[in-house]
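ok trying this again, last paste got cut off
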Amino acid sequence: MAVKIFPSANDVAGSAGDGITWKEANATSWLKAIAAADFVISGFLLPATSASLTIAVPLGQAMLQGYWVTIDASTNVVCTASNTNYIYLVLTLDGSSHVTTAGFTANTTGTPPANSLLIGTAVAGASSVTSTVDKRLVGFTLPVMNTNATPPSPGNYVPVTVYNTNVPEHRWAQDSNGALFLQVNTNAAGVPNWVNVLQIADDTGLPTFYQNVTAPSLSATGLTGATAASRYVGATVAGPPVSGTFAVGDFVIDQTAAIWVCSVAGTPGTWGQPGTPAYLDPVAAMLFG
């Protein structure tokens, strides 16, 4: 068994000298263990358009494969006409796998080059860039080592931003696709179990829920023409609620398949069934006079 610890004054390493030397490989391994995912620190925000097929990527900083990368001037990237171009920050390595420089490249496939970080996409027409989309992952991220959550599978689990990391369980995480996860427990092997609870489906921000949603009530702001207050406030065994405080527009469903709507706020308020005035409904009349 080999033990490697760096930096270490006692040279605890697999090869003599490695433990006390802050080598490139040691430094990047340490930084990758902390950051765990590539991200932009600042800058590199693509301009909205370009009058030509050349787009200027502004200066910026990033963490990429454990390397702190700073580019202190704008860099021109040539896009392919009549295509969506994927623009990446990429490291250049020599034959010994040591980094020699970093820069930007573009392709039309969306396949990330080795040692790269997606910065954004640029839609090009025949002679100009007509629009761009910011794809930077900005800020500090952590990975989720997971064998239980679906989607995604363990083999392609994407990095997430973890909130409230001092609490061992019930941590919330959101990945770069908009999915929201909840850590429900940790298994015997120490691996956190995450449950996918919400997916922001697309750029409209409309959510898709993957688990049951529990709440005291469900309110709708309503579409145009139907914006009066309304809340689904639960269910009864039979008839309207006989206790509790309710507002106009609240409705319940009882276990006899009847729907009851609150028409006068109060405790418990005045309730009637759709299409039936409260004063004509025998149950309402009996309860409220």
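PB: full thing came through this time. The chain has two helices and 19 strands.
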